[in-house]
Design brief:
Strands 1-2 form a two-stranded antiparallel sheet. α3 runs antiparallel to α4. It has a domain of 84 residues. By secondary structure, it is mainly α. The relative contact order is 0.06. The protein is built from six helices and two strands; from the N terminus they run ααααααββ. It is globular, with a radius of gyration of 28 Å. β1 and β2 form a beta hairpin.
Amino acid sequence: VSAQLRETNPPLHMWFHSFSSETSIQDGELYLKKLMQANQDLALRVMTVRAHLAEEIADYMPEMIRMGVQQANMEHRRDYLERITSLEFSHQGDRFPRSASSDRSSTSLKSVQDFQGESNGQPGDYSERFLDDSGSRSQSSEASDDVNPESLDL
């Protein structure tokens, strides 16, 4: 990374060199944590190169070390994302903030409720809607109680 910066961005290279001489590289995780606080883009770049090197020399590194590098990079990225988005957890029992997947789940639940509303509003009452052989919906006049489960060809 330093060699690339020397060619592409000399002022950043000077800053990075100065930072690296002032901060001990011996503890890689602490070094990355401090670099993340000082220059997030550069820290993410260093973590990307570190992960690539760990994968490139995978034959010579034990799996535990490779997984440790991946896990540490993920934790640094998570800490960075939490810091830039200023996540605040409520103290009312919610441990995690509402996420996009929660929004998708509520949308899916609403779709199911809308479908149930179309079929007499009774949960589990699917007796009115069936697919005919062409795959289109057809109305059935039979109630679900009149259907013999043994006669169904599953």
